[in-house]
Design a protein that fits this description.
The complex is a heterodimer of chains A (about 290) and B (about 140). Chain A has about 290 residues and is α+β, with helices and mostly antiparallel strands. Chain A has helices at about 35-50, 130-140, 155-175, 190-210, 215-255, 255-270, 275-285, and strands at about 10-15, 55, 65, 70-75, 75-80, 90-95, 105-110, 115-120, 125, 180. Chain B has one domain (about 15-135). Helices cover about 10% and strands about 35% of the residues of chain B. Classes of the chains: A alpha+beta (about 290), B mainly beta (about 140).
Chain lengths: ~290, ~140
C-alpha cells in the first residue's frame, strides 16, 4: 500500500528526531553545531528535501531540557508537506503541560482538516449536584405553584403532575452540571491529583518563563511540587490497590479469617506490589497461612 | 446507550510528547484534566509494561508499530493513541517496517472537491534503542 498515492495528499511527520541543526535549534546553542551533529542531521535534511517538507514548529521553540545541564534544545519537531502548512491553525509548545518525570515539552497542533466524528450525548451528573442550592431553588419555585388541594378529577391530577414535573426538571436544568464525558480517568484518579496537576502546570510555566534566571525561586518550587505530585500519584494508586486487595480477601475468605493474613499481605504489598513475598502469601493455602 | 453516531466533523487536535518511558508521566497525561481536549496523542518512548503493552484508556485506540508482533524482541519506542470519538471509517493504520514508526492515514474531504478523498498521514518517529534490521524481502 502506498503511503502517499497522490501528490496533493497531506503528510505530517511528528517525532523526537534527536538531531540538532541551526535550522531549528536556538542560535545560542553553538556547541550543538559541530560537524558531528550536522552530519548526523544530514539524512533527516535529505528526507525533508526529497519529500518537499516544511518545518511547522517555529525555530527556537525549545522542546527538551537536559536533566544535567538544564539547557534547552529542540530535538522534537513537526514537518509537513508545503500545502499542508496552510491547514495548521496552531503549532506550538507548552512547557506548563510538561508533566512529571519527563524532560520533554509537549508539542500541540490543531489542524483545519476535518475528520468524521461521533458525538456523545451529555448527561446530568448527579454526583456533582450541590443539593443545598437545589433545595433552595426548588422551594422558591414550588412556592409559585398554587397550594396543594385535593385532586378530584383526572384533568386536575394531570395538571398538578405536569406542573410538579416541569418545575423539578427546570431546576435540574438550571442547577445540575452536565457530565463532561471525560472517560480518560482511571478509577483511582482523584480530584486532589487533578488540583495538584494544575498547580504543577502553573509552576512549570513560571519556571520556564524565568529559565534565564538560574536562581529564581520558581525552579526549586517547581521541582518540589513535581516530586510531591509524583509521590501522590504513586501513593493513590497503591492505596487503591490495597482497597482492591482487601475486597478480594474479604470476598474469598471472609473478614474474620482474612484479617491477620490480610495485614501480612498489605505489609508485603506496601513494600512492593510485585514482590515474591506477597505472591507466596497469596498462593499459600488458607490452613498454612497463619505460619507466615 | 449514551453515544450517538453522526457525521459531524471535527478538527484534529494533536498532542506529541516524549515521555521517557515514565509510567507516572503517562498516567498524569491520560488522567489529567487536559486529555479530553486532544484527539491524537503521539507518544515517543511511552511506558511499556512486561507484556509489551502501553498504558491507555478504553476511550483511545492504541496504535502500535506494525512490527510489534512480528519482531517482539525490539523495544517499542512509539505509540499513537487515537480518540474513539473519531469515526473508525475515517482512518486506518498503514504497515511500516520499523518498530519506531507508526503511520496512520486519515480519510476526509480535505480538498476543494468534496468527492475526492485525500489523505493525512501522521508519523511518530523516534530514535531506535536497538537497531532494527529489515528483512531482505522488506528491502526489495
Amino acid at each position: 500500500m502506498s503511503i502517499r498515492p497522490l501528490a496533493d495528499n497531506h503528510m505530517i511527520w511528528l517525532g523526537d528526531f534527536n538531531r540538532h541543526h541551526p535550522l531549528w535549534d536556538e542560535d545560542r546553542n553553538t556547541q550543538l553545531f559541530t560537524s558531528h551533529y550536522l552530519n548526523a542531521a544530514q539524512p533527516l535534511l535529505n528526507l525533508i528535501a526529497d519529500y518537499g517538507m516544511i518545518m511547522m514548529l517555529p525555530k527556537g521553540f525549545p522542546t527538551f531540557q537536559s536533566s544535567s545541564s538544564k539547557n534547552w534544545t529542540c530535538p522534537d519537531n513537526i514537518f509537513c508537506t508545503d500545502h499542508t502548512g496552510l491547514s495548521f491553525i496552531s503549532c506550538t509548545t507548552n512547557p506548563a503541560l510538561r508533566g512529571p518525570a519527563t524532560d520533554h515539552v509537549p508539542i500541540l497542533s490543531i489542524l483545519e482538516l476535518e475528520i468524521s466524528q461521533a458525538t456523545v450525548k451529555t448527561k446530568h451528573d448527579f454526583c456533582e449536584m450541590d443539593w443545598e442550592i437545589f433545595k433552595d431553588k426548588l422551594k422558591f419555585k414550588l412556592a409559585k405553584i398554587p397550594p396543594a388541594q385535593p385532586v378530584v378529577t383526572d384533568n386536575k391530577f394531570q395538571t398538578v403532575a405536569h406542573n410538579l414535573t416541569t418545575t423539578i426538571q427546570d431546576i435540574i436544568e438550571q442547577v445540575l452540571p452536565k457530565s463532561k464525558p471525560n472517560p480518560h480517568s482511571k478509577r483511582w484518579w482523584t480530584k486532589d491529583l487533578t488540583m495538584m496537576h494544575c498547580e504543577v502546570a502553573k509552576l512549570s510555566h513560571l519556571s520556564y518563563r524565568n529559565k534565564s534566571y538560574a536562581n529564581h525561586y520558581s525552579h526549586e518550587e517547581y521541582c518540589i511540587k513535581q516530586n510531591q505530585y509524583t509521590k501522590a500519584i504513586n501513593k493513590t494508586k497503591k492505596e487503591h490497590g490495597l482497597i482492591g486487595l482487601r475486597i478480594y480477601w474479604v470476598i474469598k475468605f471472609g473478614w474474620l479469617t482474612a484479617t491477620s493474613q490480610l495485614q501480612q499481605a498489605m505489609a508485603a504489598y506496601q513494600e512492593s506490589p510485585h514482590s515474591n513475598k506477597l505472591r507466596e502469601i497469596m498462593q499459600t493455602p488458607i490452613k498454612n497461612r497463619a505460619q507466615h | 446507550m449514551s453515544e450517538q453516531w453522526n457525521n459531524s466533523m471535527t478538527r484534529p487536535c494533536i498532542w506529541q510528547q516524549n515521555l521517557n518511558t515514565s509510567l507516572i508521566a503517562q498516567h498524569s497525561l491520560l488522567n489529567g484534566p487536559i486529555a479530553c481536549n486532544w484527539d491524537l496523542i503521539a507518544l515517543q518512548e511511552p511506558h511499556i509494561n512486561k507484556m509489551k503493552n502501553t498504558i491507555s484508556s478504553p476511550y483511545f485506540h492504541a496504535i502500535y508499530p506494525t512490527t510489534c508482533f512480528s519482531s517482539p524482541e525490539f523495544t517499542l519506542c512509539t505509540v499513537t493513541l487515537i480518540s474513539k470519538t473519531f469515526d473508525t471509517n475515517s482512518w486506518q493504520q498503514i504497515p511500516f517496517p520499523s518498530p519506531d514508526v507508526v503511520v496512520v492515514q486519515f480519510l476526509g474531504p480535505f480538498s476543494d472537491n468534496v468527492l475526492h478523498l485525500t489523505y493525512t498521514m501522521i508519523v511518530s518517529e523516534q530514535r531506535p534503542k536497538k537497531q532494527y534490521q529489515p528483512s531482505s524481502s522488506t528491502k526489495s
